[in-house]
Amino acid sequence: MTKPRTRNPAATRQRLLDAAGDLACDEGASSLSLDAVAARAGVSKGGLLYHFPSRDALLRALVTENVARVRAELEARAPGALAGSAPALPAACCYLDVLSDEICTPPAGASGIFAAMLEDPAFMEPVLAFRAELRALFARCPDPRRGAIVFVACEGLVHEKLTNPRRDPAGNQAVLRDLKVLLTGEEPG
């Protein structure tokens, strides 16, 4: 006898977001139709519409959830990093570690986020707000000029991940190690 499927709205919602990100990465942004996302997630179209009443709602959620995840990871590693209550240099180094985890992992999701941001400039709002907080964090570093250089380089790496999600992770890791050396002035031991 088959067990009845239990309803877990949070898990279904996440499955839909994952499917949208994977679909955009595998088949391109143009494949982000609601039908295709529902099929990829194994959810009925009605189930998808329950969570995301429109394609715009799905795309907005892709961007918002990505920013929230990265923000939460940074705050978990360096509490107060974005509020300014954590020491800037260690917090900025934590961001480099979070960024390494983000851009040195499989590409799923990155193209979906980029597609969403291109779809409607308003979807950029959470990204721009987070970027402003990060810029302020790097500006608080002991050498604000170096902090600004590292911040801009990190933005370039993020952009490259969004537009070329299959870039060699080893290359990204090497760049991030060099950026940490530049930021701290210390060679790795």
Please render the helix and strand layout as text.
Layout: H1 9-27, H2 34-41, H3 45-51, H4 55-77, H5 88-103, H6 110-119, H7 125-139, H8 144-163, H9 169-184
Index terms:
single chain, 189 residues, mainly alpha, Tetracycline Repressor, domain 2
How would you describe what is shown here?
The chain has 189 residues and is mainly α. It is built from nine helices and no strands. It has helices at residues 9-27, 34-41, 45-51, 55-77, 88-103, 110-119, 125-139, 144-163, 169-184. 29% of the residues are buried. The mean pLDDT is 86.
Order of helices and strands: HHHHHHHHH
What is CATH's topology name of one domain?
Tetracycline Repressor, domain 2
Class by alpha and beta content: mainly alpha
The helix count comes to 9
| Portion in helices | over 70%
Provide the residue-averaged pLDDT: 86
Largest sheet: none
- Our measurement of the CA-to-CA distance between the termini, rounded to an integer number of angstroms, reads 59 Å
What would you report as the Rg, rounded to the nearest angstrom? 18 Å
% residues in beta strands: under 5%
Spans of 5+ residues with little confidence (pLDDT < 50)? none
Principal-axis shape: elongated
Number of strands: 0
Instruction: Please give the CATH class of one domain.
Output: Mainly Alpha
Q: How does CATH name the architecture of one domain?
A: Orthogonal Bundle
